[in-house]
Design a protein that fits this description.
7-stranded mixed beta sheet; 11 helices; 514 residues; 3 domains; Rossmann fold; alpha+beta; Elongation Factor Tu (Ef-tu), domain 3; Alpha-Beta Plaits; 8-stranded antiparallel beta sheet
């Protein structure tokens, strides 16, 4: 891969089962990354999705960690960060969205916008990330295309511009009409791609042609104006229709993606914008993954290159500590497969072997100026459990596993002030199961859970919380940075507390997800 090759770095966001993993695989196929796609449904046959590498993911047929993949298409290097689509996603997903320049939102044409899509969309909107939309499963009977556009505009408060338009759907699907070049991609069972100019089309019956002309006229007269400025500002989303499972519309989406998607953007560090073209190398760690290769008990820090050029063996400074280090062990990734990488450019994601030096959010930079990229956002968990090791003699493995999985963002860790009981927090039940599975399989520690009834975590930002303010329904704990946090059973106990103690100021940790 040439260093001059343009980069596009993006994440795919969606609700579970919208087709995100299938779309990822079809994109990789087009880029020559894989020879055959093992879809999520393939778990019965022993074929697994290329992007799902952890054992628990293979067993369940879902993505629970974020993985990194690369492909070259039309002389553009595309870095795909696959994010968990499961509703019990983790902090890992949010951190991954800090490392991309564009997001692709996959929407199920049958179900429309779902809760998970909305949550992840809010994260992208907060970070000002441009969004392209792929409306999937066109080969099924779904919602009317105009209704889907209206839903995106109303729910997400974002303008839409359909780049192509479906001709029928489900059993009556004939093809899609491409607006920029006025061509029709014909839908057929053979999955062979057939493109014909609209003027020479021979596949549409008169009523289908008439309906298409009416729709296009409506879009031209009443639809939104398309400008790249609106797209880059996150005000307008280009919309593509297709079916990832049958590969229909995927290549035309990719052709447009490399033209529309944002190139690596300037990023804010220590109050100033750092340009990708800067001669100073800099980047930040957005994810740490332990035991990617269980045989080697290794730990990898994933770094997004923001400026300058990365060269293996270069000396950098860890801004948090001021410590200088040489980056000798660097990798590029294809899910769990890796290869040594010697150079990387802005937009690239590299894996650095980590012996315990790095934390999520760390900035690495050449030179003596201690740049620090904006702090990683934190968000409040919704489920909590008190935990302990079943075997007290496994104290060392227990603490090591806990420390590493907390750093990855698998769970959040809290301690009670006096007895220092361990309490873990997560967005959903699945994260507890992943934590338990990995502690057992990677650290050989069986965990005992006592699930708590608390649902809300609030950080104390002003005032002092005394013992008389807390009870079983509002529990005081300390987070990893020893900051006071109150766990509330529900909204009612939270409101009662706020009414009773107005001088105590509380924060969610990340207001956007309220």
């Amino acid at each position: 891969m040439s260093n001059e090759t343009p980069r596009r770095t993006f994440a795919i966001i969606s609700h579970p089962d919208a087709g995100k993993t299938t779309l990822t695989e079809k994109l990789l196929l087009l880029g020559g990354g894989i020879r055959s796609a093992g879809t999520v449904k393939g778990k019965k046959s022993g074929k697994f999705a290329t992007s799902d590498w952890m054992e628990i993911e293979k067993q369940r047929g879902i993505s629970v960690t974020s993985s990194v993949m690369q492909l070259i298409y039309n002389d553009v290097q595309i870095n795909i960060l696959d994010t968990p689509g499961h509703q019990d996603f983790s902090e890992d997903t949010y951190r991954t969205l800090t490392a991309v320049d564009t997001a692709v939102m996959v929407i199920d044409s049958v179900k429309g916008i779902e809760a998970q899509t909305l949550k992840l969309f809010k994260v992208c909107r907060m970070r000002g990330i441009p969004i392209l939309t792929f409306i999937n499963k066109l080969d099924r009977e779904g919602k009317e295309p105009l209704d889907l556009l209206a839903e995106i505009e109303e729910v997400l408060e974002m303008e839409t511009y359909p780049m192509n338009w479906p001709i029928g759907m489900g059993k009556t699907l004939r093809g899609i009409y491409s607006r920029p070049d006025k061509k029709i991609e014909v839908y057929n069972d053979s999955h062979e791609r057939e493109i014909i100019p609209y003027d020479e089309q021979h596949v549409l019956q008169d009523f289908e042609k008439e309906r298409l002309e009416e729709d296009i006229l409506l879009l031209e007269e009443a639809g939104n104006e398309y400008t790249m400025e609106k797209v880059q500002n996150g005000q307008l989303t280009p919309v593509f229709f297709g079916s990832a499972l049958s590969s229909f519309g995927v290549q035309s989406f990719l052709n447009n993606f490399v033209k529309i998607a944002a190139e690596p953007q300037p990023r804010k560090a220590s109050g100033e914008l750092i340009e990708p073209a800067s001669n100073t190398f800099s980047g930040f760690v957005f994810k740490i993954q332990a035991n990617m290769n269980p045989n080697h008990r290794d730990r990898i820090a994933f770094l997004r290159v923001c400026s300058g050029k990365f060269e293996r063996g270069m000396e950098v400074m860890l801004s948090r500590t001021g410590k200088k280090m040489k980056l000798n062990q660097s990798h590029s990734f294809f899910a769990s497969d890796r290869e040594t990488i010697d150079t990387a450019m802005p937009g690239d994601i590299i894996g650095l072997y980590d012996s315990g030096n790095f934390q999520v959010g760390d900035t690495l930079v050449t030179g003596s100026e201690r740049l620090i990229y904006e702090e990683m956002p934190q968000f409040p968990p919704e489920k909590f459990a008190k935990i302990m090791a079943k075997n007290a003699l496994k104290h060392k493995q227990y603490h090591k596993g806990m420390e590493q999985l907390v750093q990855e963002g698998t769970i959040q860790l809290y301690k009670t002030p006096y007895f220092e009981d361990f309490i873990i927090g997560a967005v959903g039940e699945l994260q507890f199961q992943v934590f338990e599975y990995r502690m057992k399989n990677e650290y050989n520690v069986d965990i005992e859970f006592t699930h708590l009834t608390h649902e809300l975590a609030r950080w104390v930002t002003k005032g002092e919380v005394t013992d008389r303010m807390t009870d079983s329904r509002r529990m005081l704990v300390l987070d990893q940075q020893k900051r006071p946090v109150i766990l509330f059973e529900n909204d009612f106990t939270l409101r009662m507390f706020q009414d009773k103690y107005p001088d105590i100021k509380l924060s969610t940790g990340w207001e956007i997800l309220e």
